[in-house]
Amino acid sequence: MKKILTSLAVACSAFVLYSCSDQLDTEQHGGISVDQYYKTDAECLEGLAAVYSNFSGYRLSDFMPLASLSDDFYAGGGDRGNDTGLEELNEFNLSLDNARFSSMFTTWYNTIYRCNLLVSHLAEAKTPTAQRVYAEALVLRAFNYLRLASYFGDVPLIVEEITDGNYAKEASPRAQVFAQVEADLEQAIASGKLLEKANKTDKVVNVTKQFAQALLGKAYVYESTFEGTDKWSQARAALDAVISSDKYELYKGKYSDIFHFVGAFNCESMFEFNWVFDTQNTPINMTQRLGWRVERFKQDQYIKTQAAGLTECPNESYGFYNPSIDLYKAFVEMEGENGYRLNECMVTYKELCTYPLNIENGKYVYGNGGYFTKKFLPRASERIKSNTLTTSSVFFRYAEVLLLAAEAEMHGGSQVKADGYINQIKTRAGITNQPGNYTLDDLMKEKRLEMWGEGTRWPDVIRWGKAAQVFKDWGKRVPTLYGLADGSDNSNQQYDNVDGYNILWKTTGGSGWQDKYARLPFPQQEIDVNKNVSQPTGWN
């Protein structure tokens, strides 16, 4: 993917569902009309850069809301109310004017808008570069519409530049959105213009043909489960094409490096945004939100453990997105307390105490049940300067291809293939117990552990028909960690003993799962400006 650090020649800042005042329709001096643009390869590439640049904000407006819509994280933060938008999403207490929620929706449509500019103006492109730009725009548009279909269901389907100012479109049925995603991807793949890696170790930063095929396979799997159609054979064909290309494989280095600067664009990465580590170009990259709440620990110990390399978390971090107690137990059930993947993904407070690194007397860590993330933890080595860190944003990787392929094989395909794909994941995770004959329930467990925090948990649980069971009481209460249950690490007041941790439970007012959450509502600001859409059942 392009690494964007400078201002772009093309400014594309309109939101999809907003209308413009006629008073703003004045000629811009020194500007170039969009009808006169995209005439050269350089202009086409600048338009594509404008699309890719939008993904720089997905850490804040995509990753964070999607992770919050999961039983794998507590929203966390400094204390209750630190970020009410994330708490609402995490606790089934969503208000329609939630800023985090509306930002996610708007960001996806903003990227689609930029894609539509390219698709509309390059449909008859003549040069190989312009034709590749057109194909990449189709893939990136499909990527965002697949997200919209997975979370919102029926959404406005806009596939061309709007020239009459009428952005207020009716919502199209989700099946129609899936059909458009598949058509875009099939066209892009068939064009022969998408880039491809030369081999597994090659690095291609733009989207590739294999990524388009992987996304197409995912769309077929999602349509088959969300809509009850039978696209399993098409899913198998698309995903087999990726696997048989022999251009990707599971990363064999340190597992947690996959999600960090040191592992950028590795052999497993299929779609990624990565910042350049440059002190002269310091982006606003909100990865410090994913770190631990470090000021709650004893600072003399923290300094020592960081100097010794025991603690990777940088000094500035906000304490959001702590792994849930249930997620930790699911890991232990699968691979034991000493599991390789588990210990690459998170660290327990009991382990921190052995460093030693203890919570300060009288302090606590809100939204924490005794477990701290390492998977997305911004590392001290990725700190450019105070409050500025740079890590990779990995949107799609080969591990997901294997898991989607295994699911597709379980529906009319080969059990042997399904077992083989799952066992590749297990082998990399260090799991020796590989009995085979895996069921869909086995796949569900494996996918949760491999893909947690990567935006798949929420749609998976819903499309598998497990939401009422999995999310039944989720979000009704949140843990606060005060230390070890025996009080040996600090002098905090004693509360509940939860697996050896001193936990105070706080009631949130969350409702637990409600059927209306199967399709998220439109943000209120979209309803206000687009009278042609209405809320799904239960949100009126």
Largest sheet: 4 strands, antiparallel
The structural class is alpha+beta
Low-pLDDT runs of 5+ residues are 1-24
Range of strand content: 5-15%
Helix content: 40-55%
Q: Number of helical segments?
A: 18
Number of strands: 14
- In round numbers, the mean pLDDT is 90
Order the strands across the largest sheet as they lie in space. 7-12-14-13
The gross shape turns out to be: globular
Measured distance between first and last alpha carbons: 40 Å
Work out the radius of gyration: 23 Å
Task: Kindly describe this structure.
This protein is of the alpha+beta class. Helix content is 40%, strand content 10%. The protein is built from 18 helices and 14 strands. The strands form six sheets. It has a four-stranded antiparallel sheet with strand order 7-12-14-13, with no helix packed on it. Strands 1-5 form a two-stranded antiparallel sheet. A hairpin with a 2-residue loop joins strand 13 (496-498) and strand 14 (501-507). Helix 5 runs parallel beside helix 7. The longest helix is centred in the first third of the chain and has 25 residues, at 128-152. The chain is globular and about 70 Å long. The two termini are 40 Å apart. 49% of the residues are buried.
Task: Fill in the keyword field for this structure.
globular, alpha+beta, single chain, 540 residues, 14 strands, two-stranded antiparallel sheet, 18 helices, 4-stranded antiparallel beta sheet
